[in-house]
Specification:
Length: 120
């Protein structure tokens, strides 16, 4: 069993900053990709940022230059630093991870989501 616990969401003003954290726990052998998706009301879930075990990253075009994803492999934790936030960044943000368990089973795991609200 693997769980992802997110923290750091909240209300922030336009132009402000927030940092989201996601900690993985359980029967983890290794984690390949960790990332963040978001879903705004009435819209589909979309990839925001992803980081692989070797450190390479992907970003949604709309957040490039404003968001930074990082990870601490020793703690099985990743962080999403969000700067210059805009009202259109308002959404529920979900952590996601590709995990190889100690039983050598591959799992794709989701967190429960954390709400980010950016006021104009």
């Amino acid at each position: 069993q693997v769980q992802l616990v997110e923290s750091g969401g909240g209300l922030v003003q336009h132009g402000g900053s927030l940092t989201l954290s996601c900690a993985a726990s359980g029967s983890i052998f290794s984690i390949n990709a960790m990332g963040w998706y978001r879903q705004a009301p009435g819209k589909e879930r979309e990839l925001v940022a992803r980081i692989f075990s070797g450190g390479s990253t992907n970003y949604h075009e709309s957040v490039k230059g404003r968001f930074t994803i990082s990870r601490d492999n020793a703690k099985n934790t990743n962080y999403l630093r969000m700067d210059s936030l805009k009202p259109e960044d308002t959404a529920v943000y979900y952590c996601n991870a590709d995990v190889l368990t100690t039983a050598r089973v591959y799992l794709n795991v989701w967190g429960q989501g954390t709400l980010v609200t950016v006021s104009s």
